[in-house]
Amino acid sequence: MTASPYHACPSPFNLSAHVLGQADVVPDKIALAILKPTGAERWSFARLKQAVLGCGTGFLNAGLIPGDRLLMRVGNTVDFPIAYLGAIAVGVIPIPTSSQLTAPEVRVVTDMVKPAAVLHDGITTCPDDLRILPTSDLQAWADLPPASFDIGDPNRLAYIIFTSGTSGKPRAVCHAHRAIWARGMMMDGWYGLTETDRLMHAGAFNWTYTLGTGLLDPWTKGATALIAAPGVDHSQLPLLMKRNEVSIFAAAPGVYRNLLKSPHLSFPKLRHALSAGEKLPSRINTAWHDATGTHIYEAFGMSECSTFISTAPGLAEVPPESLGWPQPGRHVSLRDESGEVARGETGIIAIHKDDPGLMLGYLDDAHATHSRYQGDWFLTGDTGHMTDAGDIHYHGRADDMMNAGGFRVSPLEVENALLSFPGLQDVGVTEIEVKADTKIIAAFYVASDTVDENALAAHAAARLARYKQPRLYRRVSELSRNANGKLVRRALPDVPAL
User: Residue 95: which of 73, 122, 75 has the closest Cα?
Assistant: First the structure.
């Protein structure tokens, strides 16, 4: 699907300078509020910019130079975005990592990126043979003379993030400064964000979904970012949303599932909500709309290109299982081994190599980088089909696709069909091997009470072709999910039955 190109990123350019540009326009406006039931900690745009550039001076005073890599072992605190932007401001390359990594996992990461130093909060697992910069220094650094922005080619390396590792091995994804410029396509293509909005993200500071959607993008626009303080649980979010007049709410699908358990979902100022991270079940969107009168707009993306397909306020009504449309300025294609597939046919979702949000490549791994391309197209590894209307329906990861009697079956399709059965709280579907060379589709489900599995099978039979129907149902206490809340399908066969 072709689209008009997005206007080119200015040059010279610095990611942090772009994010903090509104600090010179509205210095006294609240950029960030960290919320808890007893009050809030507030940061103006001017205070935020001073802290970031003071942190940049601190990094330079500590001996780091542009191009040095800084591994971030930082938990869920405001130190995370300040240090991240402070490093990028002065040309140091921040490398955020999950605070949940074990010592062996951290060693894999450090061996890959060879950091000049590690920013450490003193709590998260961290090697003891690397140079440590403690986050306790950041408070003093905030008052240092502000550093100058390291301005340069927008295509130069700005930061490195890691894939989730669901493919078996994490990869270091290199992104350019221009990546923040490309996120401008999300403002209208997904967020509907304006400078008057108060956007609340339910995630932690140190999650890249929170960092981008919850912090950097509102600051770029001059809007106010709202984040729940560490320790606030999902049951407290409705109170915080109402009290703080949230106009846009962002979260992963699992958060909406939990919020819908609350009897009090009244948000007079809420215009709409956002979802990303995994496919949002249509029943959750419907239930949210019934409870709040607002819509959840969904986006699809990945570590290598953030989000580039989405629904958005003002677009045509979206079919229940659709991801939405390529954002204005994006160039997306559905492809198989022979090239672009016809409308309605299943293919790999791909994005054009010239997209300004696409990664520079995998660190020190040209072979892995080139293997993801088919000519001018970056292959995401996710499958779907495009309708005649141009919207894209998601089928799942290519390696999640099941084979039933020669037919490829999307586990998401089966899961969505089963989730409408009364009493089911969560469902995961995968293939399991019952004997040599014989696999069947199995459904693992969470329910508070015993479910009549004959009725569940009949429910599936009424909604799915025979070859798509599970042959085995297993009730479990919970489904295995990774740190970002994504279902780990390969772990399903090992989940014990209740």
Answer: 73
